[in-house]
Amino acid sequence: MNNTPISISIVIPVYNEEDNIESLHHEIRTVCEKERYIYEIIIIDDGSFDKTPEIAKRLSPVTLLKFRKNYGQTSAFDAGIKHANNELIITMDGDGQNDPADIPRLIEYLKKENLDIVSGWRKNRHDPISKKLISRAANYFRYLLIHDGINDSGCSLKAYRRLCFQNLTLYGEMHRFIPALLKIKGFKIGEIEVNHRPRKGGVSKYDWKRTLKGFVDIISVWFWTKYAVRPLHLLGGGGLFMIGIGILLAFYTTYLYIVGHNLSDTMEPLLTAFFLFMGVQFFISGLIADMLSKTYYEKTKDTPYNIDTIVINPRVITENDSQPKPSEQS
């Protein structure tokens, strides 16, 4: 049996959650101490204007990151994850609807199945019917474009190995699509059902703007999944297709002119110019995007591939071995 204590970093973005943060912190402490985890609790105050930061400052143990203004949940998750020091990272909402009692189950499933990410699935949600319908529509749209195997991408309760976040920066509303982004890199993903509780205090921060941003980000993730390394295949291919249509229309327009047809009464000349012009524009955009993609991979530490294991006989080196331990960090 491996009796090495499990070390976890719990990342919690909060925004005006003065009614929930103290009780949630107490629940997390109770679970972690019962399970004998080595743990840290990272609370990111996303520009709250109530008493949330004052309450968080009094909690212990806690690492409080206080934003100067409201930047959004994704930025808060990104900041918290970048400040995490332990082997596993647990993300969850600060409104108390995620149940800390599910944390050991997430970790156990991750270890048992040798996964890199385990996502919670709020199968029985305690939310207004309007929020449930929007969430289902978003999940269906996501399923059509991004096949990440996750039923509930909007559930913030997830467990990750810390190595998942090498060279990964979150933006927009991308925290919902972290499993999809990591699946692109070859990480192993799983999902289990988790408890979802009614909100006891405060108000929901979700509105139509966040929903719209989420739909736009789904398209962004789809594009990144399919064409991040080869954008010319999409834009250039589309451009060549449109140029082909333009050429066919040009031949047809020429034929109409030869047979004496009055071209001022037809749309063919205008459509010919439109398809040729747009085709060239798409192709040039594809070339530019291709150059930018190459520049991105050259100038950042990111790569279009991810190495799981290196074998140097008689040793086996995994990505875990290359990660700095918490005690080694400055």
Keywords for this entry:
elongated, 7-stranded mixed sheet, disordered C terminus, alpha/beta, Spore Coat Polysaccharide Biosynthesis Protein SpsA, Chain A, 2 domains
What's the helix and strand layout?
Elements lengths: L6 E8 L6 H15 L2 E8 L6 H7 L4 E4 L6 H10 L5 E4 L11 H10 L4 E5 L7 H17 L12 E4 L16 H7 L4 E5 L14 H20 L3 H28 L9 H32 L9 E4 L2 E4 L12
Helix pairs in contact: 5-7, 8-9
Q: What does this 3D model show about the protein?
A:
This protein has 2 domains: 7-227, Spore Coat Polysaccharide Biosynthesis Protein SpsA, Chain A (Alpha-Beta Complex); 231-299. It is built from 9 helices and 9 strands. Helix 1 links the parallel strand 1 (7-14) and strand 2. It is α/β, with parallel strands linked by helices and 330 residues long. Strands 3-2-1-4-6-5-7 form a 7-stranded mixed beta sheet, with helices on both faces. The protein has a two-stranded antiparallel sheet with strand order 8-9. The longest helix has 32 residues, at 268-299.
Which spans have pLDDT < 50 for at least 5 consecutive residues? 325-330
Strand count, sense and barrel status of the largest sheet are: 7 strands, mixed
**Beta strand count:** 9
Query: What is the third-level CATH name, the topology of the largest domain?
Result: Spore Coat Polysaccharide Biosynthesis Protein SpsA, Chain A
Q: What distance separates the N and C termini? A: 32 Å
Global geometry = elongated
Question: Which percent band covers the strand fraction?
Answer: 5-15%
In the CATH hierarchy, what is the architecture of the largest domain at level 2?
A: Alpha-Beta Complex
Strand order of the largest sheet: 3-2-1-4-6-5-7
The chain-level structural class is alpha/beta
- Helix fraction? 40-55%
